[in-house]
Design goal:
The complex is a heterodimer of chains A (101) and B (400). Chain A has 101 residues and is mainly beta. Chain A is built from 2 helices and 4 strands, in the order βαββαβ. The longest helix of chain A is centred in the middle third of the chain and has 5 residues. Classes of the chains: A mainly beta (101), B alpha/beta (400). Chains A and B meet through loops of A and α9 of B.
Amino acid sequence: MSEKVYKTGQDASWKELPKAGIIYEAGNAREFKTGDWRVKKPEYYADKCIQCLFCWAYCPESAIIVEDGKVVGIDYDHCKGCGICAVECPDRASAIQMVIE
Amino acid sequence: MAKRVSLSGNEAAAFAMKQIDPDVVAAYPITPSTEIPQYFSQFVANGEVNSEFVAVESEHSAMSACIGASAAGARTMTATSSQGLALMWEMLYIAASMRLPIVMTVANRALSGPINIHNDHSDSMGARDSGWIQLYSESAQEAYDNIIQAIRIAEDPRVSLPVMVCMDGFITSHALETLEVLEDEEVKKFIGEYNPDDFLLNADHPIAMGPLDLQSYYFEHKRQEQDAMDNAKQVILEIAEEYEKLTGRKYSHFEKYALDDADIAVVVLNSTAGTAKVVVDDLRSQGIKAGLLKPRTFRPIPGKEIFDALKNVKAVAVMDKADSFGAYGPLFTDIRNIMFDNKDIKIVNYIYGLGGRDVGTKDIEMVYNDLMDIVKTGKVYEVKKYLGVREKGGEEVWQL
């Protein structure tokens, strides 16, 4: 493959943008911040968390931050506020609660 | 060394595909192009090609499989007609917008309804705005030559668009014709290896293709398609020149037949141009300056070149084998638009041959006679006319 010169972003002209909207950079969805779509925000209470990792498994946005196998918080840049984590969090823990932003 | 063979249009198309030996062919049978995948699957079964033949359950799937294969990096071909092309419709736009160099032969057939299997151009004209390059072929020879050149046109990095090679269903697809074909090695050398810049199976450079493209980018990507079409005009000529060196057969955006000093001219696509040439010869022998322009490239339409080719003609009849009800035929709309700045030319539209209605030399003579009247009187009474439709019943029917 020849290394192409291209630009992306909303200031790039049709001549500069990659052909047909091809995305050359793997994993660049990370740059698209979807946090501002949110109406309700999940609050995470570390002291109640039993580390079952259900929230991490169910989150459609990979917005549950896990370090060394443990939930440590929520990525608010990408969390859309769907509330699935709060529903899946077992009742005996209730470590995630949705609050109005 | 070229050799002379006797083939039908469908056989010639399948034979060209055999020589091209694409990586993938995904196709579904439909009259009158059925024989193309039929013959080709025989080549696959006999081990005469290395292609992967994907038998699908519909034309929508055929084009979808072609898109997948082409995006993966495979040289991909298919063939269809009429309802099959109609069923592909939404996928045609996706193939073009993803800039995939798929080459498809279309044996032109009328669109239903009423259901009809015979030739007109309503199928490919319906795909006019899909972003595919469209090449039209008068004969099996031209279909064969166009298919081989189409591979190069489609794959040229300046173009990177799918190409539709059209020929008349039954009239060309099923009629035996003597034509000259290349040796397998010559075709292989002419088309070369397919090395796309971007493809999904390139593990060294993983990419995403066909992403969601909203207000901020869609318009720019559509503008790129227009740019590719603009580039195609030049690329088509370059490849035609190279092909002429190989075969001695000359191709351009269109063929001019006795046109340079013509007073009256017909513009017509595909096999009817052959009939019109007989009429032109006859009129010329009577001293009437009749000519013909047969477009080969319909998308992109070579506007400037057509303007120059027709500029000295006094009256032009554009014959459309497809109608746009409530408007004009698609070829006429383009030609009259191109000629708009030349106020000296009278241009009229004839809708002809719908659903395979036969059009003979007598019909085309009538068109040239009408043009002579227009030149003499300077008046056009009807811009859009129907050629060969029964206006009156009873005994007058056969007195054309």
